[in-house]
């Protein structure tokens, strides 16, 4: 029996109801990472998608984007750059602020992370409201990079992030999605 690789990955994701607060269902990717077969299937989905793209770097968003992005960069023979939460990088940085449900946050990168004109794949584990990914994309663009696509394992389209990202002209790719009522 053949199962679609994206369905296989989706079926391995754990749904945790009422975490971190009542009414929220957290989509936990750690079972995907713990299982060698599902982790390989996930990375292979990304590798097959991007192996024919002309890319220079993979940028991963703090923190789960580091896991995916570094493995993907290795498999594609590309460099990897981290997009960190504010205050975590030791060298000269540039930051981009974004809105959260209650307040603001920011992400930052070293000023020498990318060179103008480099073609970058931006990756994280999940697209919810899209704030972090949009801020990371703006940051990369401010440093002169061309963000070719933003990728994630999971899209939560009911939260509007993927639509907001597409409205800015950013192409996105996700392995699977969950609707609000999915268990």
In brief:
With 183 residues, the chain is α/β, with parallel strands linked by helices.
Structural write-up:
This protein is α/β, with parallel strands linked by helices and 183 residues long. The protein has a domain at 54-177: 3-Layer(aba) Sandwich (Rossmann fold). The protein has 6 helices and 9 strands. The protein has a 7-stranded mixed beta sheet, with helices on both faces. Helix 1 (5-12) crosses helix 3 (36-50). The chain is globular. The model has no long low-confidence stretch (mean pLDDT 96). Residues 53-155 form the Phosphoribosyltransferase domain.
Task: Record the SSE blueprint.
Layout: H1 5-12, E1 14-17, E2 25-28, H2 30-34, H3 36-50, E3 57-61, H4 64-75, E4 79-85, E5 93-100, E6 103-110, E7 119-127, H5 131-142, E8 146-155, H6 161-167, E9 172-177
Parallel strand pairs: 3-4, 3-7, 7-8, 8-9
Antiparallel strand pairs: 1-2, 4-6, 5-6
Helix pairs in contact: 1-3
CATH topology of the domain at 54-177: Rossmann fold
In DSSP terms (H or I, runs of 4 or more residues), the helix count works out at: 6
CATH architecture of the domain at 54-177: 3-Layer(aba) Sandwich
Give the class-level CATH name of the domain at 54-177: Alpha Beta
Uncertain parts: none
Tally the beta strands: 9
Beta fraction of the residues?
25-35%
Sketch the major β-sheet: 7 strands, mixed
Roughly how much helix do the residues carry, as a percent range? Answer: 25-40%
**CA radius of gyration:** 16 Å
Question: Structural class of the secondary structure composition?
Answer: alpha/beta
Shape descriptor: globular
Side-by-side strand order of the widest sheet: 5-6-4-3-7-8-9
* First-to-last CA distance: 25 Å
What's the average pLDDT? 96
H and E order: HEEHHEHEEEEHEHE
Domain Phosphoribosyltransferase: 53-155
Family: Belongs to the purine/pyrimidine phosphoribosyltransferase family.
Function: Catalyzes a salvage reaction resulting in the formation of AMP, that is energically less costly than de novo synthesis.
GO molecular function: adenine binding; adenine phosphoribosyltransferase activity; AMP binding
């Amino acid at each position: 029996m053949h199962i679609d690789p994206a369905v296989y990955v989706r079926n391995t994701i754990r749904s945790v109801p009422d975490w971190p607060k009542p009414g929220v269902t957290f989509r936990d990717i750690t079972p995907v990472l713990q299982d060698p077969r599902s982790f390989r299937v996930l990375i292979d989905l990304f590798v097959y998608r991007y192996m024919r793209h002309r890319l220079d770097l993979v940028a991963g968003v703090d923190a789960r984007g580091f896991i995916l992005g570094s493995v993907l960069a290795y498999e594609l023979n590309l460099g990897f750059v981290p997009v960190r939460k504010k205050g975590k990088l030791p060298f000269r940085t540039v930051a981009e602020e974004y809105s959260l449900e209650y307040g603001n946050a920011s992400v930052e990168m070293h000023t020498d992370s990318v060179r103008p004109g480099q073609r970058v794949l931006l990756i994280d584990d999940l697209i919810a409201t899209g704030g972090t990914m949009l801020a990371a994309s703006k940051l990369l663009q401010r440093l002169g990079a061309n963000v070719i696509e933003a990728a994630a394992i999971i899209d939560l389209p009911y939260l509007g992030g993927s639509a907001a990202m597409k409205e800015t002209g950013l192409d996105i790719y996700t392995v699977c999605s969950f609707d609000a009522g999915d268990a």
